Amino acid sequence: MNILVFGGGAIGCHISYCMYKAGQTVYVVGRGKHLDKMKKYGMHIQVCDNEKLIEDDTVTKDERFKLVEDLNEVGDIEMDYIFITVKLSDFNEKNIQLIKPYMGNNTAIITPCTSLPFWWFYNLGETSNKKYNDIDFNPEISKYFIKKNIIVMTMWLSAVIKAPGHVVIKHIQRGYPLGYLYSEMDNRANMLRNMFAKTTLSPIVSDIRSELFIKSINSLAFNTVALDREYNNLQLSQNESCKNDIRRIMLEGERVLHVLKIPVIQDVDDRIKQTLSSTKHTMSMLHDYKIGKKVELSNIWDSHNRVSEILKVDMSFTRSIVNRVLLKIKHHEVNNA
Predict the structure, then answer these.
(1) pLDDT value of residue 333
(2) CA separation for the pair 198, 18 (Å, rounded)
(3) Would you say 96 and 141 are in contact if contact means Cβ atoms under 8 Å apart?
(4) Cβ contacts of residue 184 below 8 Å, gap of 6+?
């Protein structure tokens, strides 16, 4: 099968590695020094369980592993799977138009999952609140996709580019839980899970939409509070005020699931304990903030804000702390311009 990974960052590289090891032909679209280094020396992947190294491998370019900067290098190929793993700010019409020629009528599409996706209200389950079924809150993006081809996938792992060409997976929690949005992708979703299972985790979950929401609200809560206090995981775990703020954001967000009658698959306190158990870790947005990279908090918040307004869910506490942090980020960017 032909698989396109559009976005060769840390997560995109790990997905590419998993698909290649599963015997598929993989096209990775990257850029900059990271791509140049991989082209020259191969993609160096290290997989760790916190401090313990459990896998160390390098994949070099060959007939099944293609590293490209421009999609024109790919040629006229219809993809079986397309993973869109760019930064949220790059998930826009311009880049989707570049990908569109590689989408066939049966191409399985995996969109970014850190924010709530454009398809959030599509095909709500039988027990969900059908009042909101098929609302489209982002038509500028949704118009490029075939609804039935969407595969829902979340990413529960910590990954960084340690140096150009060198990706480190610091910690795998649940790996890549996935499922289908429409039954047409049932078989493709199962095939994809089996491919991941050759190298990493891809558990079967009871409600993939709930799984995605929990992942997204977790990201919003932990990154917002980490940025607000400029604390790493160890510092967050030792501060009850921080944990209370994280808890309040999560609980406000969960009201979305309650309105839609979607189950909450994991208790808030369990999620806090699980995430902060990785004490060596620094939240990705705080890491980006400190090294001068663009922080994507506004992209995640925008999706939650839109959905909460549609459902008339009060997220006033989250809004107040997010706005404070966004102002801080803006001042930081101006002062470091």
Answers:
(1) 86
(2) 8
(3) yes
(4) 148, 149
Amino acid identity at 165:
G
Instruction: Tell me phi and psi for residue 215, to 5 degrees.
Output: -60, -45
- State the amino acid at position 179 in one-letter form: G
d(CA 71, CA 4) in angstroms, rounded, equals: 10
What is the percentage of the chain residues whose pLDDT exceeds 70?
Answer: 100
Interval 72-119: pLDDT, tens: 999 899 999 999 999 999 999 999 999 999 999 999 999 998 999 999
How far apart CA 198 and CA 188 sit, in angstroms, is: 16
Residues sharing a CB contact under 8 Å with residue 1, sequence separation 6 or more, in sequence order = 24, 25, 80, 81
Would you say 253 and 305 are in contact if contact means Cβ atoms under 8 Å apart? no
Tokens standing for residue 108: 């399985």
| Per-block mean pLDDT, blocks of 10 residues, the chain (337 long) | 97 98 98 96 94 94 95 93 95 96 96 94 84 92 96 93 95 93 96 97 93 96 98 96 98 96 94 87 91 92 96 97 96 83
Coil/strand/helix, residue 187? helix
pTM of the entire structure?
0.94
